[in-house]
User: Which sequence fits this backbone?
C-alpha cells in the first residue's frame, strides 16, 4: 500500500547489534522483492535510510553526508560479485557474494584476485 500511495520507505533493523541475527539482514532485504524492484530495495537500505537519519536534526549521530558516494561523505562500500540490480538475492549470501567490504576508508574484506 505504501508503494501504491507513493510513500517513501526505508529499511533498517537493530540486527547489527546481534552478530547471529545480523546474518539474516541480507535475507530480509532479498525477501522484499515480492513488492519492490532490486533498485527500490537497495535505495531503501541506503539513500532513504540516510535521509531518515538526517531528519533527527540535532540528535543526528553522523556529522556529514550519508547515503551518497562522494568526497567528504560518510560511506561504507561493498563490492558485490554480480549485479544486485539484476539479482537482489546476491545480498542474501554476503559471505560468498561480497568480495570487498570497506568502512571508514578501511578494508575489512578483500577476496578480489
Assistant:
Amino acid at each position: 500500500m505504501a508503494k501504491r500511495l507513493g510513500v517513501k520507505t526505508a529499511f533498517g533493523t537493530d540486527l547489527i547489534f546481534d552478530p547471529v541475527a545480523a546474518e539474516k539482514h541480507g535475507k530480509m532485504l532479498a525477501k522484499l522483492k515480492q513488492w519492490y524492484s532490486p533498485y527500490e530495495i537497495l535505495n531503501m537500505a541506503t539513500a532513504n535510510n540516510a535521509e531518515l537519519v538526517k531528519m533527527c536534526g540535532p540528535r543526528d549521530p553522523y556529522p556529514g553526508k550519508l547515503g551518497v558516494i562522494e568526497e567528504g561523505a560518510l560511506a561504507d562500500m561493498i563490492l558485490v560479485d554480480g549485479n544486485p540490480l539484476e539479482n537482489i538475492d546476491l545480498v542474501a549470501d554476503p559471505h560468498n557474494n561480497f568480495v570487498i567490504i570497506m568502512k571508514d576508508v578501511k578494508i575489512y574484506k578483500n577476496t578480489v584476485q
In short: The beta strands are 77-80, 98-103, 106-110.
